[in-house]
Amino acid sequence: MAFKDSSLPPVLPEDAARLAATVAGSVLLPGDAGYDDERAVWNLNHELVPAVIVVPESAADVQAAVTFAAGQYRPVLVKTTGHQIVGLAHGAA
Q1: Half-sphere exposure of 33 (CA within 13 A, CB side)
Q2: Closest CA to 4 of 74, 67, 72
Q3: Contact residues for 35 (Cβ-Cβ < 8 A; gap 6+)
Q4: From residue 63, how far is each of 19, 51, 57 by CA, in Å?
Q5: 3-state SS, one letter per residue, for 16-45
Q6: CA 83, CA 66: separation in Å to the nearest integer?
Q7: Which residue has the higher pLDDT, 13 or 77?
Q8: Do residues 55 and 93 make contact, with C-beta atoms less than 8 angstroms apart?
Q9: Mean pLDDT for the stretch of residues 79-90
Q10: Are 26 and 56 in contact (CB under 8 A)?
Q11: Which residue, 10, 19, 30, 57, is most buried by CB atoms nearer than 10 A?
């Protein structure tokens, strides 16, 4: 799988629920309340559309998100601010 592979299937709600049970922060899928706010960036030339968004509250949440992504063979992208992107987020965790 290439890093920029946008053909990944969506994250299943039951998989997201298992992730949500392991993190203190939020786990958001497309269509969930808050998903669009969390994926928004300042540069509107780049639309981020991750398969799942984890809003961590701790290092353990970050570790759980990375472990989840690895188990799903998905790339991981970190949105550090609303002003920049590092890569495509289509299908990422």
Answers
A1: 0
A2: 74
A3: 28, 29, 53
A4: 11, 17, 11
A5: HHHHHCCCCCEEECCCCCCHHHHHCCCCCC
A6: 23
A7: 13
A8: no
A9: 60
A10: no
A11: 19
| Lookup: tokens for 24 | 């203190």
Residue tagged 């958001």 (tokens): 28
Task: Tell the residue number behind the tokens 């989840």, with chain if given.
Answer: 68
pLDDT of residue 89: 54
pLDDT in tens, 14-72: 999 999 999 999 999 999 999 999 988 877 777 788 999 999 999 999 999 999 999 99
- Which pTM does this prediction carry? 0.80
Number of independent structural domains in the chain: 1
